[in-house]
Amino acid sequence: MKKLLLLGAGLLLCTACQQTGQSAQNELDSLRASIATTPDSVAYRMGLAQAEQLRQWIDDGIDSANINNFLQGMHDGVQAFDRKDAAANKAFAYAAGYEAGKYNVSDVIAQGIQHNLYGNDTTRQANVERVVDGLSDGVLQQTILPAEQAMAHFQQMMIAAKGSKELRETKAFTDSLAYYCGLAQAAMLKGYMHNTVGVDTACTADFLDGMRKGACKSSVEESAYVQGFVQGAMSVGKDIVGYLNFKLFGKDRAQGVNPMLVFLGINDGLRGKADISSEEASQWLTQIFKTTEYDEALAAENDSIANDNTTEE
Fold it and tell me: What region does 141 belong to: left with phi over 0, alpha with psi -120 to 50, or beta?
């Protein structure tokens, strides 16, 4: 399996809740000292094996000045996924919403409206808050207008705006257009939130709060933290740890690797604190996995998934 990190797609972002300085260092030192079994070593080296790939992804989207925020977010995201309690679910929902707000609502939807209305005139902006209002009202079903009608209304307004400079410069009109654009896409957002990302329905309000913050008031520091949080919960907690547990223990749910050891491997690899390279860690894992008894079952499952995907296409 050459690529485990599905790098894509916090938080109750209270600095008081985040570990800092010596306390965080003590936790990581304690984790290193706890590595005593083969599963512990596998978890740590799996994280280490991902570090170089993750470094390249970070370099493409996160300023180096915010690497600490990213890693703190990843740390908290891994812990949240491992706990799976109400507070963790709320934090994850907020983080997923924040990402959706920043990278989908602000960077895609609102900019798409701006481009269609004003072309290359970047001094004119679509009202992203009204887009969020439409999305939120649709998700919470606070409007009786179906998505299809909202989309038709939005398209009619866009056509009218393109043909009238007066309409394009009328704030009430363009704000309404932005609202209907959001409302038209609310059903799609709801499916993404619950089915794709896996946000609990009880945490819908937290997702929407995060979406509004990410779309309207994002900061580079919080964005780095949120990206780390989501990667910690989804890529590390769900994907990598899930893969390792199946690889090492099969269907025995009573056993499992320590997710924080995967994070520790990533952290050490990114900070240059490991005694071996990512490539050496990958080679070691290859040899270890050759001795596990679940290779055939894993291969069969992967073949089944591949066949299902082929069928869907």
Answer: left
